[in-house]
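note to self — DONT lose this again. spent like an hour looking for the file last time. sequence + predicted structure for the chain T wanted, 424 res
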Amino acid sequence: MIELFDINKGDVVSITGAGGKTSLMFSLADSLSKKGTVLITTTTKIFKPERIKKLNLIFIGPEEIDSISPQDSCIYIYCSNIIDNKIQSASFEDVARLEKKFDYILIEADGSCGKSLKGWKENEPSIPTVTTKTIAVIDITTLKSLKSEFSIHRFNLYTQQFPLTSEIITKEDFINYINSNLFFKNSSGRNILFFNKIESLEFFEYFFDIVNSIKNKDIYFGSIFNGLIHKFKNVTPIVLASGFSRRFGTNKLDIKLKNNMTLLEQVLFNITNLNFKEKILVGKENHYLKLANSYSFKYIQNEHSHLGQSQSVIMGTKSATLDGFIFIPGDMPFLSKNSLLTLIWEFQMHNEIIVPFINGQKCAPVLFPKKYSNMLLELKGDAGGREIINKNIFIRCTFKNSMEFFDIDTKEDLKLLEMSEENL
């Protein structure tokens, strides 16, 4: 966790937002106490913690600042005062004095009364000037919940800052709230967004639906409760549509389905069900440009398709700018949003090649991390990425619905598609 956030000796880390600030602070303190001296405090108010299993907590007050000699393996908690079992706000001056005494300082610098969103006062968040990193905690489970005084701290102030357009917290509300950048007001140093409580594919979908609309790109996600935090790695879908359809006899990608979409159009449509930052179509037909534009794909004309599938892979890889590439055949019309999300989720967990399996057999689409770019650029002929998969670590991702991964190679395959009860 501390390696992910790149917390180093001398760092003063302020934590803002809602939905896990205190838990994150103690989790980081536990890890950092194994590397040096650690102090935690608040510039707002927090409940005085009870004894926490496995943590050696030592409370100190203002009178001890000058004389203290911190020990490793302990977590010091600075209390300017305690009223009604709440630790009161530390002054910026006290934080600056304490900075010289400890290797690491963690500060809860924002208050939300246990609610997920808030209306911000002018002096919030309370981030000390010596702060080197600010981590904003965001509760993903807030999305789609009801807007009320029960979920939003200072509800009336919130409605002034973010006028109500609906009764629930929509995707647009969440994006506007995050992009307001109020989490980092008056901050200095590195600003990090951490989306908490992403413990299932359902909440990862919520996250993926908004992440590419967020201005700050220093983004992490995971679950403090489960002790899992990941740096978000973005993915480019690359649709391969440069084949010659020799076994089919004519260009199979232009065949119309029952919904009047072509085979290729259906594939592009399915991909747009996810909010990708960039999407690439590599093809050899001039009329694919218009189709690509209509679905916001970048189109790359493959003038060397006769050299094999490797040329499409190379051209797509050269054009992609993100952390991973998922190569999707243009004749796979049943591939679902959920299956694509599953592959992307596995990539976040492992940062390795992700390969779908059906009935014990590898199939497309395969997701490659950016670290394999050079290998992808060296491919030749029709081997595709098989050689790379066979020589390197990959993660097996098993699926049950074989129709989703069904591709159309022959007219017999087309008949099976038309007969399928799952036809679109």
